[in-house]
Design goal:
Chains A, B: One of its GO terms (molecular function) is DNA-binding transcription factor activity. Chains A, B: Pfam families: HTH_5. Chains A, B: It comes from Kordiimonas sediminis. Two copies of one chain form a homodimer. Chain A is of the alpha+beta class and 109 residues long. Chain A contains seven helices and three strands. Chain A binds a DNA duplex (30 and 30 nucleotides) through helix 3 and helix 4.
Amino acid sequence: MDPLSDTFHALADPTRRAILLSLKHGEKSAGDIAKPFAISAPAISRHLKVMEKAGLIDRRRDGQILYCQLRADRLKEATEWLERYAQFWQSSFGRLDRILSTEHPRTDK
Amino acid sequence: MDPLSDTFHALADPTRRAILLSLKHGEKSAGDIAKPFAISAPAISRHLKVMEKAGLIDRRRDGQILYCQLRADRLKEATEWLERYAQFWQSSFGRLDRILSTEHPRTDK
DNA sequence: TAATTAATTAACCATATAGTTAAATATAGT
DNA sequence: ACTATATTTAACTATATGGTTAATTAATTA
């Protein structure tokens, strides 16, 4: 899969989004990450692998502990992709924007 | 699925993202949307259904033509979710932010 | 060395996904 | 009425997903 699809796919799961939020304030071990969730450790382990593949986290082993840390670059890319649509809500005339663009189509790469 | 998961899931496919981009300048019929793609009409039809379920587009039928139009609200919600992480790249000290947050954990709801 | 802890891998299950072709539906035109 | 066009639904295939439990690997502690 292309990187952006990997990123959005990784974000399309509430457990993974909750994990990501839980990493906002610093790195945590896989075990600590798993604690709040009702699912098994292997399930968490696979969520972490999906997130690592998507570039959402880095993993670092220290002894038996595997520390996970939020990684920003792919989140940034996904955000930037979405912000291409910001014109549709940033003005108070979002609906009007769409109507105007329909009636006066412009091209933009 | 919860709405945010639906939205990210709908975005996690390059065909659907291309469709979304193609709607940036106004509504298009399902047939016109399908033209640039090498896949079958039923495949496009299902992509459009996924996008409608996710709230990324509205559909309106006029005779035999089904017009699809970009819809902003869910895109806005997804963008806002992602922007909760903007602190990790907005300063030129993104990396430092993470290090500091690791060493001085704060809570935020 | 034996036992404990942290995490992953393996094997399995049920469901979902993305595509196909063929058939069905619905509107429009002759 | 007949035909053509636009789109969806049905039936099918192959692969991916998200969960489980049991077994495995690796590091720590007694």
